[in-house]
């Protein structure tokens, strides 16, 4: 660094407020330097002694991508603990490991991109594992706890700076950068914004990351909600970091802007402060910003605003006050306390879904542990590299003794015979290093490539027996006897080289395609078929080999043998987080993969005492009727196997609770792209069917009774109290849940809605008195007629119990609230997107900068209803603001059409609105009904007397 003189630089004076120091440093930066700061990899300014800085360090459930670190349960598993204090301690441990790792490797960043607060609206979302819950209050409670842990306790200096992902309404991987989530105002305020808002208002959030998708027709990276909502929730400067490649998507895939200069300027003005694009190469973003400045699309003041927000985070992280930074010497890494916490979190995440007295297992039980995940400790895209590893098999060996545990993986043992009669052969890798993917760390693990130092597959007369696992949808993995998976490297050759399937593009998955009397073997990562050539087995675009599958043993046979010899069978089933349901890929069904269903049936047929342990990143639709016990846990990190064994043995009573509804069938699900949780009756809040297992469900080895529910309205809160008693014979945790519902709501309201919860530990015979202060605002809904929150007067039922359906106590309170008022349409008209009900309508962008309009989704007419519109003494004219082509039909209360309005010719573009008028006769209060035909955008409806 170039020498500098601290005495002359106010930005280095720790006695000054951060704001003044930032002003000083900002004033010293040149326009060129400020421009460079806008890229994720901000360069050093040596003349001022300012170091380089990068935004972004993944740490969803442990430090990710940077090599070995403590691996905690997946985020969905942390959500299943329903324990904010535990999750705070996990965040604290993760932040300490971030600091410790950074002290040894400056690639590790302190701007942590975590947690994910997207609500788990749809269980087929590929990234279900990254969220906490389908409920906004539970999500915000867990997210707030995690961010507090990540931030640290110091009032001034932050240990890490958490960034919430992914703003906003993002629950689909299918076409994620081009699809638009249609989010009506009630869903926006009551559901999607709520988890972000509550977490930001708690004060431990440094920023957010916009999502790839569009909301109401407008990309999230130019969302006006960043200014209209996000930045109004806190006085802290929030750093908005783009998602990777998303700035370029504004032009390249979304075609929302014609040039990258326009797109970059629009994103910066909307509130994006740091651009994650083109990896470490900042030249593209710098060039776009310079172009936008030259064209007058940006001013230097716009850059100052963004750079100020970045500097605010850097000052809070203590970068400019190393001698005052209390976290600078943090060195806790892989400590005994962190290992114990990983085990505790894994134990608390386990949910007992069903138990007909087969659990806990009695001492001396002979156990068969079977299934594709029985000897696995799976990681995901946002995991660190394991320092310690515990599989269910290893956990049961340790707890019950290897002599009492039998194992059958359940893979099919096969050989692949070529058309010449030879077999695929895996050569022995002499003295090959036992490498683990990602162990060295990488700023972008998507760039990691497969190994080429191992021998290429060949053919010979006998071949090599391979372990075939079918993960659903015909997606296969093939594993060699030494435990390595067949993989394809950049040179196109097949090798047994991967310790696990993984990577941004998985190179270890295949599909067998029927072809004549045999099969083609398609490699899914490249889309090419496997062929046999003189220089080895490889993938190519031509001359695919036709293989015959020679089966030595079906997995069901091995499972049945092990099951028949055991007292109890534990079938460990679930998913590989890199296959069929992950970032970039949604699931297509709730069903277990076919091979795992067959293994479960084989175990059950051989031994009725079959326990199903689901280890997965999302819910499954399984039939528990003939199973005496079912458990679920997310992929539980480094201590997963030990935790499962301890729960099975009864060393720990399970107390995890489902953070999302488990549906019984695919037919219960709405469309993946239907974001209207109210209209489509989604999540436990609105679902009217019978779930397989309800939100909040989870059993215990103890039993609990509830009593003494009391509630009173006092000041601005409802004070609720009740008792919970352990009537069982073991110490156990209970998760007491408090729900509310409006008794006689005037609009569709949740069937019940989580107001608060408490996880408590009770010894046998112990009673806990629980109290909750529920703010009156918790009973409010977004009144589209008044465009604000409103508490409706009337009765509200309070329900206390062990799940959203297991209600033990009820009482009702009456709230004064604020009466409804009809819409004063003569004064304000109707904002088109402020409807009460709709069918076949999508919300779209009124302009590229702000505002909403509506349009018919498809060829069928779209219908809109606006309740209780007050026309006063009478309206004689209606005016609609429209763009495009088509018609608007207006009627009242389901009566005849009063007006049909249509542009004489299509407008010149989707944002070129015209006003159309027609005569009507309306007086008093009526429901206004509109029907939209054709590709017409409607922004506003006005009435005049």
List the main descriptive attributes of the protein structure presented here.
eight-stranded antiparallel beta sheet; 945 residues; alpha+beta; globular; single chain; six-stranded mixed beta sheet
Molecular structure report:
By secondary structure, this protein is α+β, with helices and mostly antiparallel strands. 20% of the residues lie in helices and 29% in strands. The chain is built from 18 helices and 49 strands. The strands form 13 sheets. Strands 14, 17, 18, 21, 22, 23, 24 and 25 form an eight-stranded antiparallel β-sheet that branches. Strands 11-28-27-26-12-13 form a six-stranded mixed β-sheet, sandwiched between helices. Strand 21 (510-515) and strand 22 form a beta hairpin. The longest helix has 21 residues, at 84-104.
Concise account of the structure shown:
This protein is α+β, with helices and mostly antiparallel strands and 945 residues long.
Q: What is the 3D shape?
A: globular
Q: What percent of the residues sit in helical stretches (DSSP H or I)?
A: 10-25%
Secondary-structure-based class equals: alpha+beta
The main sheet comes to:
8 strands, antiparallel
Low-confidence stretches: none
Total number of helices:
18
SSE inventory with pairings:
Elements (H helix, E strand, L loop, with lengths): L17 H11 L2 H7 L3 E2 L10 E2 L2 E2 L16 H6 L3 H21 L6 E6 L19 H16 L9 E7 L12 E2 L3 H17 L5 E4 L3 E2 L2 E2 L5 H4 L10 E2 L5 H7 L7 H11 L12 H12 L5 H17 L19 H13 L2 E5 L11 E4 L21 H9 L4 E4 L3 E6 L5 E3 L32 E3 L5 E5 L5 E4 L5 E4 L5 E5 L11 E6 L2 E6 L4 E6 L2 E5 L5 E8 L1 H10 L3 E7 L19 H13 L3 E6 L13 E5 L6 H10 L33 H4 L17 E11 L2 E10 L5 E11 L10 E10 L4 E9 L5 E3 L4 E3 L3 E8 L5 E9 L7 E2 H4 L1 E2 L5 E3 L1 E5 L6 E5 L5 E9 L4 E10 L2 E6 L4 E5 L12 E9 L2 E9 L2 E9 L1
Parallel strand pairs: 3-4, 4-5, 5-7, 6-8, 7-10, 12-13, 12-26, 26-27, 27-28, 38-43
Antiparallel strand pairs: 1-2, 8-9, 11-28, 14-17, 14-25, 15-16, 17-18, 19-20, 21-22, 22-23, 22-25, 23-24, 29-30, 30-33, 31-32, 31-36, 34-35, 36-37, 39-49, 40-43, 41-42, 43-48, 44-47, 44-49, 45-46, 45-48
Helix pairs in contact: 1-11, 2-11, 4-5, 4-12, 5-6, 8-9, 9-10, 12-16, 13-16, 14-15
């Amino acid at each position: 660094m170039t020498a500098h003189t601290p005495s002359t630089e106010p930005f280095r004076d720790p006695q000054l407020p951060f704001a003044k120091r930032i002003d000083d440093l900002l004033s010293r930066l040149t326009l060129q330097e400020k421009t460079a700061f806008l890229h994720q990899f901000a360069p050093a300014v040596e003349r001022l002694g300012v170091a380089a800085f990068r935004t972004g360090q993944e740490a969803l459930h442990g430090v990710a991508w940077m090599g070995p670190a403590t691996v905690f349960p997946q985020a969905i598993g942390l959500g299943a603990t329903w324990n904010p204090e535990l999750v705070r301690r996990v965040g604290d441990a993760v932040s300490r490991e971030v600091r410790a790792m950074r002290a040894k490797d400056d690639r590790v960043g302190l701007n942590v991109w975590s947690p994910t607060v997207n609500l788990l609206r749809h269980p087929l979302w590929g990234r279900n594992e990254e969220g906490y819950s389908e409920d906004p209050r539970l999500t915000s409670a867990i997210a707030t706890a995690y961010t507090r842990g990540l931030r640290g306790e110091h009032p001034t200096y932050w240990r890490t700076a958490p960034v919430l992902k992914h703003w906003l309404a993002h629950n689909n991987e299918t076409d994620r950068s081009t699809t638009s989530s249609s989010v009506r105002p009630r869903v926006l305020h009551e559901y999607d914004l709520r988890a972000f808002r509550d977490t930001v208002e708690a004060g431990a959030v440094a920023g957010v990351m916009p999502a790839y998708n569009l909301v109401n027709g407008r990309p999230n990276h130019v969302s006006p909600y960043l200014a209209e909502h996000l930045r109004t929730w806190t006085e802290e400067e929030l750093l908005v970091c783009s998602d990777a490649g998303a700035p370029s998507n504004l032009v390249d895939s979304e075609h929302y802007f014609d040039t990258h200069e326009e797109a970059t300027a629009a994103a910066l003005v909307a509130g994006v402060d740091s651009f994650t694009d083109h990896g470490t190469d900042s030249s593209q973003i710098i060039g776009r910003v310079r172009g936008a400045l030259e064209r007058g699309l940006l001013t230097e003041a716009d850059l100052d605003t963004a750079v100020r927000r970045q500097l605010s985070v850097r000052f809070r992280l203590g970068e400019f006050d190393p001698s005052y930074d209390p976290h600078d010497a943090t060195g806790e890494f892989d400590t005994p306390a962190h290992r114990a916490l990983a085990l505790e979190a894994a134990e608390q995440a386990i949910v007992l879904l069903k138990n007909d007295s087969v659990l806990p297992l009695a001492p001396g039980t002979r156990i068969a542990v079977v299934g594709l995940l029985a000897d696995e400790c799976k990681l995901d895209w946002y995991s660190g590299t394991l320092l310690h590893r515990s599989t269910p098999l290893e956990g049961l060996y340790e707890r019950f003794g290897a002599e009492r545990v039998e194992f059958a993986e359940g893979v099919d043992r096969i050989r692949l015979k070529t058309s010449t009669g030879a077999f695929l052969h895996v050569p022995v890798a002499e003295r090959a290093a036992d490498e683990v993917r990602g162990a060295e760390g990488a700023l972008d693990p998507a760039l990691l490539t497969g190994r080429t130092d191992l021998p290429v597959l060949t053919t010979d007369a006998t071949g090599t027996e391979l372990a075939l696992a079918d993960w659903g949808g015909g997606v296969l993995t093939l594993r060699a006897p030494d435990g390595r998976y067949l993989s394809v490297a950049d040179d196109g050759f097949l090798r047994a080289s991967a310790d696990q399937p993984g990577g941004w593009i998985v190179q270890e998955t295949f599909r067998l395609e029927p072809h004549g009397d045999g099969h083609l073997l398609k490699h899914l990562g490249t889309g090419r078929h496997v062929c046999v050539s003189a220089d080895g087995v490889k993938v190519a675009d031509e001359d695919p080999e036709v293989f015959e599958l020679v089966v030595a043993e079906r997995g069901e046979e091995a499972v049945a043998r092990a099951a028949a010899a055991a007292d109890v069978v534990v079938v460990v089933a679930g998913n590989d987080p890199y296959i069929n349901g992950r970032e970039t890929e949604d699931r297509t069904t709730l069903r277990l993969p076919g091979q795992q269903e067959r293994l479960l049936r084989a175990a059950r047929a051989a031994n009725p005492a079959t326990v199903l342990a689901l280890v997965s990143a999302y819910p499954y639709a399984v039939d528990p009727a003939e199973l005496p016990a079912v458990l679920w846990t997310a992929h539980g990190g480094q201590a997963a196997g030990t935790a499962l064994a301890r729960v099975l043995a009864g060393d720990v009573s399970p107390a995890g609770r489902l953070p999302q509804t488990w549906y019984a069938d695919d037919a219960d699900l709405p469309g993946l792209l239907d974001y209207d949780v109210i209209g489509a009756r989604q999540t436990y809040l609105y679902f009217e069917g019978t779930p397989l297992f309800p939100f909040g469900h989870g059993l215990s080895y103890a039993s609990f009774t509830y009593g003494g529910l009391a509630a009173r309205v006092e000041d601005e809160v409802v004070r609720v109290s009740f008792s919970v008693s352990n009537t069982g014979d073991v110490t156990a945790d209970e998760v007491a849940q408090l729900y509310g519902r409006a008794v006689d709501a005037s609009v569709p309201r949740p069937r019940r809605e989580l107001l608060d919860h408490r996880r408590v530990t009770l010894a046998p015979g112990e009673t806990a008195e629980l109290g909750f202060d529920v703010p009156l605002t918790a009973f409010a809904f977004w009144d589209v007629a008044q465009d604000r929150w409103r508490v409706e007067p009337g009765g509200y039922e309070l329900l206390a119990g062990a799940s959203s359906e297991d209600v033990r106590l009820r009482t009702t309170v009456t709230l004064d609230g604020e009466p409804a008022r009809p819409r004063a349409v003569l004064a304000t008209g109707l904002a088109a997107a402020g409807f009460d009900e709709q069918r076949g309508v999508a919300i779209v962008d009124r302009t590229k900068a702000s505002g909403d309009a509506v349009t018919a989704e498809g060829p069928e007419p779209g219908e809109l209803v606006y309740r209780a519109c007050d026309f006063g003494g009478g309206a004689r004219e209606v005016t609609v603001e429209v763009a495009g082509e088509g018609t608007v039909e207006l009627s009242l209360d389901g009566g005849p059409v009063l007006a049909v309005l249509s542009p004489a010719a299509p407008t010149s573009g989707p944002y070129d609105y015209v006003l159309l008028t027609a005569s009507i006769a309306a007086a008093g209060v009526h429901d206004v009904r509109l029907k939209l035909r054709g590709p017409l955008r409607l922004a506003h409806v006005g009435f005049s007397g």
